[in-house]
From TrEMBL:
<dbReference type="InterPro" id="IPR002901">
    <property type="entry name" value="MGlyc_endo_b_GlcNAc-like_dom"/>
</dbReference>
<dbReference type="Pfam" id="PF01832">
    <property type="entry name" value="Glucosaminidase"/>
</dbReference>
<feature type="domain" description="Mannosyl-glycoprotein endo-beta-N-acetylglucosamidase-like">
    <location>
        <begin position="147"/>
        <end position="256"/>
    </location>
</feature>
<protein>
    <submittedName>
        <fullName>Bax protein</fullName>
    </submittedName>
</protein>
<dbReference type="InterPro" id="IPR053195">
    <property type="entry name" value="Bax-like"/>
</dbReference>
Length: 277
């Protein structure tokens, strides 16, 4: 069970919008149908790992409730990871957009130019969302950063039993989030809301300061963010401590998830699907 902070009401801007014209929202009631959709657009993790394909912008609203009834564990894994990867990348896309804007403001600030008007208002709102002193760009850059897909996918698989747990199926909660009580789990309208909440918790809660510091150190060393390495900082994520870390790392290693850290979303739809299926 994850030791996450209470989920507070967040401004709408804290939740990634999913109404971009390039995004396709999928409402699918069976794992078989979802697998067929992935096959129809030639979306396979093998191709993504090899760098031969971008990830289609298919945003699944909820895990199919018959996921546990898939006869093959390998097929269940594929459906689960295929469904979750675009959501993680979509949340990271919004975070990266904010980070890029912060970096631009930081460069201007070093030239002696302080943000004004709309830029100052945006910076103030972002500071409030991430819980730092108003306008402290350096502090924000420690928090406004992406979560490596390998880490997110592994934690979700461990926490949700490949998307088959009650919280995953009925609450769209894949990461074991609680609402401040050890027995009360969080619920989300859509899977992407749960993914955004997970990223926000890693990026803001004091329990995960070591995660943010290690990520910043990787950035400073101009290294690729390493989900396997960063997993070692999350001993407070679960009451199981180091045993939990071993499980997450085994999940990353056993499913070659590090190779998905370079995955990228397709620039546009271009897959012949309607906006909702």
């Amino acid at each position: 069970m994850a030791d996450l902070p209470p989920l507070l009401a967040a401004p709408a801007s804290a939740v990634p919008p999913i109404d971009k014209t390039s995004d396709v929202v999928l409402r699918v009631d069976s794992a078989g149908k979802l697998s067929d959709i992935f096959d129809s657009v030639d979306y396979t993790l093998a191709d993504v790992r090899d760098g031969e394909a971008e990830v289609p912008r298919l945003l699944v609203e909820a895990m199919p409730d018959d996921l546990r009834r898939l006869g093959s564990l390998d097929l269940r894994k594929d459906v689960f990871f295929n469904a979750l990867l675009p959501l993680v990348l979509r949340v990271n896309e919004d975070i990266r957009h904010d980070r890029d804007r912060l970096l631009a403001l930081q460069r201007l600030q070093r030239l002696g130019l302080e943000p004004r008007g709309e830029a100052a208002a945006w910076l103030s709102a972002l500071s409030e969302r991430y819980g730092v002193a108003d306008g402290d760009i350096d502090a924000l850059l420690l928090r406004v950063d992406v979560v490596p897909p390998s880490l997110a996918l592994a934690q979700a698989a461990v926490e949700s039993g490949w998307g088959t747990s009650y919280s995953a199926q009925r609450r769209n909660a894949l990461f074991g989030q609680t609402t401040g009580s050890a027995v009360r789990y969080a619920a989300f309208e859509r899977l992407i809301d749960g993914v955004a909440s997970y990223a926000r918790n890693l990026n803001t809660h004091p329990a995960y300061a070591a995660f943010r510091a290690q990520r910043a150190a990787q950035r400073a060393a101009r290294q690729k963010l390493d989900g396997y390495d960063l997993a070692s900082t999350l001993t407070r994520y679960s009451s199981r401590g180091t045993a939990y870390i071993r499980d997450v790392r085994a999940m990353i290693r056993g499913n070659d998830l590090v190779e998905l850290d370079s995955a990228r979303l397709a620039a546009d739809r271009a897959i012949g699907l309607p906006a909702a299926s």
